Amino acid sequence: MICPFCRHDDSRVVDSRPVEDGTQIRRRRECPECGQRFSTQEVALLNIIKRSGATEPFSREKVLVGVRKACQGRPVNEDDLVLLAQRVEETLRSTGQAEIEAQEVGMAILAPLRELDEVAYLRYASVYRNFASLEDFEGEIALLRALPSSTKVASSSKKSPENKA
Ligand SMILES: [Zn+2]
Predict the structure, then answer these.
(1) Least C-beta-crowded within 10 Å: which of 10, 28, 63, 160?
(2) Strands (DSSP E) found in 31-157
(3) How much is the pLDDT for 154?
């Protein structure tokens, strides 16, 4: 690693510690030439390939923005959303791929969102999966009804009966 102070082409790692639940490594480095210290952070690459073909780094914030919109007016709190975005990232990283299609991000959001709030899920799915007719909604709702209730219990801590409507 090149020293950012004097551009010397080598540096020595003096400390290394995991951060962000071990998904990242922060290293403290020292330049043998000028003696300055600096930090680097190592994180596994996760790029999203957009429909245009361009790539951009995965962003939990972008997941949050999309999901937050679908959850408007629903009994879902910000902590639930943050946790959902974290699960989405874990799912995507567990594929071991460095590049993932934007569509797969949408797919990875659907399952945890369904557990969190079924109405928000339907809203999200209707946009994301291009529901074109009432039948699409009916089909999806039938699927939701057929789901084992255990997957619903395992999700949000405080599910009020009202959101079964
Ligand atoms: Zn230096």
Answers:
(1) 160
(2) 37-43, 47-49, 55-57, 99-101
(3) 45
